[in-house]
């Protein structure tokens, strides 16, 4: 466990910037998931459902 | 309130990062990216195949992100010289908004991500071309040519000229003469565009130690080179019509736009040596942007009309 002296407290500006980055990463990942999902559907087409159960 | 151990803090000056998403978007060079997207889209529309619209949008996105990644890696490598030029001093790295390691990681990650996405969603020829474009821009142009030869932007221009070829390849899986003509137009357009800028930014480039043509060979030589390239640009702009993949109407408009390019370059050629305001060079720089956009916009319109008529 590190000493309290070894740790620093982020400023309001740093926390705000981190939150901004986190939201952007979340949105980018969500967009990527949607793109891959829809892209796969389009690319595979009907063959997606053409398999043995 | 979150506490962070010092060993995890960015080592530059003991501060946590204050970079916002906007700073990372600025690393992608959005203005360059918009031109890449536009020219790649024109390549796609002119290609003789009808793509799935969603897959075409994904391909465009991948090309845009790949171009942005190359921009981020360029800013990572060039942070030292960007800090010396008025045109680039406001970029995220010289301003200290983004750490070099962050820009490098961001650029490498997006490069791999964009190439893989294009390969999986379009085809591996297009993905290979995108990977080559990123490599050429970052390694051949940024790391090697930019600081070593006045021909830097002549050869390096190949990277900026490839997007329509990638767009074409993403749809057809081939590289053909038509797509290479689109490459040629942008390739020949790049030197007069950047040398016009270099003429009125010689101080910037001298401070940064970049051997741009006006700094190395002088203004008069640069003006002659600009004019020669302008003539070649005007001729290459006619090729789509001559080779039959654009209409006569396109050819007529391209001829007018090309004459404009030659005219603005002629004014630069005849510019008084003592003219420090560099009005004609600034006018050519502005017109060159209009020219490229207009040529590709007319090609796009022409391609769309011929598709509707087919």
Automatic annotation (TrEMBL), chain A:
Entry's transmembrane regions: 23-42
Entry keyword set: Membrane, Transmembrane, Transmembrane helix
Stated name of the protein: Protoheme IX farnesyltransferase
Organism annotation: Chelativorans salis
UniProtKB/TrEMBL annotation, chain B:
Subcellular locations according to the entry: Cell membrane
Membrane topology summary: Multi-pass membrane protein
Pathway assignment: Porphyrin-containing compound metabolism; heme O biosynthesis; heme O from protoheme: step 1/1
Keyword Transferase applies: yes
Principal place of residence: membrane
Molecular functions (GO terms): protoheme IX farnesyltransferase activity
Membrane spanning residue stretches: 32-49, 55-77, 98-118, 124-145, 152-171, 177-200, 231-264, 284-305
InterPro entries named in the record: Protohaem_IX_farnesylTrfase (IPR006369), UbiA_prenyltransferase (IPR000537), UbiA_prenylTrfase_CS (IPR030470), UbiA_sf (IPR044878)
UniProt similarity note: Belongs to the UbiA prenyltransferase family. Protoheme IX farnesyltransferase subfamily.
Other noteworthy facts: Carbon 2 of the heme B porphyrin ring is defined according to the Fischer nomenclature.
Function: Converts heme B (protoheme IX) to heme O by substitution of the vinyl group on carbon 2 of heme B porphyrin ring with a hydroxyethyl farnesyl side group.
Protein name, per record: Protoheme IX farnesyltransferase
Organism: Chelativorans salis
Gene: ctaB
